[in-house]
Amino acid sequence: MATHSTRSFFVLVAVLSLLVGSRVLANESRMNRDGTVSITGATTGKSAQQTGGGGGGSTCQAVPAGQIALDGCPDDWYRAGIKPLIVDNFGDVQPIGADLLNVYMTNNDIYAYFLLEFAGPFEGASFLLLNVDGDRRSGCATPTMGFEYGVTFSRDGSYVGDARDCGWGGDDFPTALQVVFNGRFIEATIPLEVLKTLAPKTGLKTIEVFCNNDECEPGIYTLKTASQSTHVGGSMKGLTPLGALCQNLRTNQQVWIWMIGGSATHYDCQKAGLIVMPGDAVVVAGTGVVPKLRHPSN
């Protein structure tokens, strides 16, 4: 009869086997020597908040002029007067569902937004490669590009990852990428805090965008000045709201900080009760309205 310690050992081995197995099964994308990108591994479906199936449609949301809704519809981009960052030739890739025509980009205080337009209903896989330090000699450096992040779009699994070694996977920043597929369009968001992780100490100021496997001329996007600055690690200076919301992007845990004011206030999310592990990205959003909830200390 097995002892308690022996049973515990077998349980531990089983758990470790499951963990190792899940890592092997996770999607991974890699830059090939010819400059194309390929995907290996089975789909886990857990690497992105992903909606929209088949070639089907998405319900377009009505939003105020100038605002962007993550719904897979281009109407709000057009109303906001956002011009394409990248324009590519029609008919240079087959099938037409893989022929990328336009890449749009914008940002607010928390997210970078992307809109990809294809010649036909999207099919297969598409990739964006992001250079966040302005140096093509760093990261995954090739004769024509250098990038720190890879973004994979596929209905079988979408994700953003650390591509400095020319490969990236869904385990790098789990659920950081939010994606909606809608016919010819893909709309996505990535938290700025995630993109700041590999940016230089001087801050994230520009993002150079390369597209594969439909080769196109890169575009350089200059980030809009945020009205509220955020910081990885759970703290922020310079806000003057009545309260602030701390959110861990890995776990989606949220903690409110109550009735704090003053231009030099230091918001410490961890002291407020947010659980932050090494490598986690934390967003701090200020608000002028305190929600109608009881204070945790009451």
Supply database-style keywords.
mainly beta, 6-stranded mixed beta sheet, disordered N terminus, 298 residues, disordered C terminus, 2 domains
Polypeptide structure, described:
It is built from three helices and 21 strands. With 298 residues, the chain is mainly β. It has two domains: 27-222, no CATH class; 235-287, no CATH class. A six-stranded mixed β-sheet has the order 3-13-14-6-5-4. 35% of the residues are buried.
Task: Write the topology of this structure.
Layout: H1 4-25, E1 28-31, E2 37-40, E3 48-51, H2 75-79, E4 86-87, E5 100-107, E6 111-118, E7 125-131, E8 140-141, E9 146-147, E10 149-154, E11 159-162, E12 167-169, E13 177-182, E14 185-191, H3 192-196, E15 206-212, E16 219-222, E17 235-237, E18 243-248, E19 254-257, E20 266-268, E21 282-287
Parallel strand pairs: 3-13
Antiparallel strand pairs: 1-2, 1-12, 4-5, 5-6, 6-14, 7-10, 7-15, 8-9, 10-11, 13-14, 15-16, 17-20, 18-19, 18-21
In whole angstroms, how far apart are the ends?
Answer: 52 Å
Largest sheet: 6 strands, mixed
**Net shape:** globular
Low-confidence stretches: 1-26, 226-241, 259-265, 288-298
Which structural class should the secondary elements be placed in?
mainly beta
Any idea how many domains?
2
What proportion of the residues is helical, as a percent range?
A: 10-25%
Question: Secondary-structure element order, as H and E?
Answer: HEEEHEEEEEEEEEEEHEEEEEEE
Range of strand content: 25-35%
| Global Rg | 21 Å
Strand order of the largest sheet: 3-13-14-6-5-4
Number of helices: 3
Query: Can you give the mean pLDDT?
Result: 74
Number of strands: 21
